[in-house]
Design goal:
- This protein has two domains: 5-99 and 291-317, 3-Layer(aba) Sandwich (Rossmann fold), CATH 3.40.50; 101-282, Rossmann fold.
- The radius of gyration is 22 Å and the shape is elongated.
- The chain is of the alpha/beta class.
- The longest helix has 19 residues, at 291-309.
- Strands 8-7-6-9-10-11-12 form a seven-stranded parallel beta sheet. A five-stranded parallel beta sheet has the order 2-1-3-4-5, with helices on both faces.
- The chain is built from twelve helices and twelve strands.
Length: 321
Amino acid sequence: MTDKKKILIVQPIHKAGIELLENNSNYDVELIENIDDKVIKSKIAECDGLTIRTAKLSSELINASKKLKIISRHGVGYDNIDLKSSREKNITIAITATANAVAVAEHVIFMLLNISKRKDMYDKTVREGNFTNRNKLPKTIELWKKNILIAGFGRIGQSLIKRCKGFEMNVFVYDPFISKNKIEEFGGIKVEDLKETVKSMDAISLHMPLNEKTKNIINLDLIKTMKKNCIIINAARGGIINEQDLNKALNENLIFGAGLDVFETEPPKKDNPLLKNEKVFLSPHTATFSEECMIRMGKETIQNIIDFFEKKLDKSKIIKF
């Protein structure tokens, strides 16, 4: 490689990743923290590669690029990137396919435990001096030998099933693209009918991409068929669950509770009723925010760019569209 490649880092990533470029004489690096479209547009024209976190890369921005060849997404979702324009300009999109599975899987278990053990209610009881009234509190739920559905069985789903097995849970898997044999290798049970399967689940964890088929796939009609003690966790993409329907279902005690790390609009609007609903456990799209995961994601985000220009990028990290 003779000519230096200009790499634009849109939004900060862990310094361990940036150092991979700074220590490589083949690259010039520029970090921009201001994700206003005008700022990105003024910088994108001359870059050869860029990294992106949550900022939007619209068709206008992508079309403003003159020599962009690789977009490396800091994460596994890519719904914030205009795919049509990327395809037309022959731009490769890569994801950090191997970095975040453990952190997200642990976050799902964290949410399941907090909801099933009524963490906020029990903690509040002690702090408010109502310790002696503990026998009047609603009882908790055990995860032991309960049925859980993992909807989407990529690396995160595969990491989650290992942790569910620690609770001796019966794990069912819905993923039309993963074979029965693959799922059974992990100790799961492949199911074909999502609508039928949810009827007997005690917990549902969503790990699907957001697209036309999955948008609002969890809606009021489907929730009405679920068990009263069911817990729904979404650490995938906002929009998979219809938020208005979920709020209504929780208020009507149709299910036990829910955990959301992602929202249809981020940050959620102040009038989103889920923000005041005590039956939902919320986190601000931070399932990957372990220190260890941030290091892995930062490094993999940058390594994908280096590997691309050195023509050795792992095909499993390239988005097909």
